[in-house]
Amino acid sequence: MDFIGQTTRIVTDRQIDLPGSVMAIGAFDGVHRGHQHLISGAVNEARTMGTTSIVWTFDPPPKVVFGRAEQLCSLDEKLARIAHHGPDVIVVAQFNRLYAGRSAETFLEDLARANPRRIHVGADFRFGHKQSGDVAQLGKRFDVTVPMPVVCADGQVVSSTRIRALRASGQRAEADSLQGPFGMASQLAGRLLTKDLRHHRTQVE
């Protein structure tokens, strides 16, 4: 798929194998302006380094799987919003309770197959069985960048939790403003990306 002059390829986490990359990792539920800042930072750094930019994400988001939150957007929309920022590759790990039970070290080995020169990630990122892995452990294995959070005009941090709270209180316009626009062209792009992902999943089953 071509976005803003860049070709974005989508693969599963079992198919990734690269000699080098700069990576952004996260659930990215809603792909709000904070997520967009993190993703753009990784994409821009990859271009500066002359290497592959990767966005590594999970479907469904972990909080949704464990019943702690409702999903903010469909997979179609999520992939289209991510692709709009021009990564070379989107890696989608199929998240379920079996995946959640894997060790933190197993997840690090998955990442190592992309040979990341740097990883951009939020400060609260957790991984592995019972969320045993954190940014500190990630930083022992890879070079990690944790960007400053993006804040609203009132000083509150932009987050998926805040968007859910705004929607729940009927403040839909304000919630949408924290995600940015999503038009018909993006909807079509998202459907095509999801179709491509499903094809890749059947190849590895």
Helix and strand layout, with pairings?
Blueprint: E1 2-3, E2 6-7, E3 9-12, E4 21-25, H1 33-49, E5 52-59, H2 62-65, H3 75-83, E6 89-94, H4 97-100, H5 104-112, E7 116-121, H6 135-141, E8 144-145, H7 160-168, H8 172-177, H9 184-204
Parallel strand pairs: 3-6, 4-5, 4-7, 5-6, 7-8
Antiparallel strand pairs: 1-2
Structure description:
With 205 residues, this protein is of the alpha/beta class. Helices cover 42% and strands 17% of the residues. The longest helix has 21 residues, at 184-204. The protein has a six-stranded parallel β-sheet with strand order 3-6-5-4-7-8.
| Strands ordered across the widest β-sheet | 3-6-5-4-7-8
Terminal-residue CA separation: 23 Å
Number of strands: 8
- On the 0-100 scale, what is the average pLDDT? 89
Question: Helicity level, as a percent range?
Answer: 40-55%
Strand content: 15-25%
Class from helix and strand fractions: alpha/beta
In N-to-C order, the SSE pattern is EEEEHEHHEHHEHEHHH
User: What form results from the Cα inertia axes?
Assistant: globular
Tally of alpha and pi helices: 9
Low-confidence stretches: 1-5
Radius of gyration: 16 Å
> Major sheet, described briefly?
6 strands, parallel
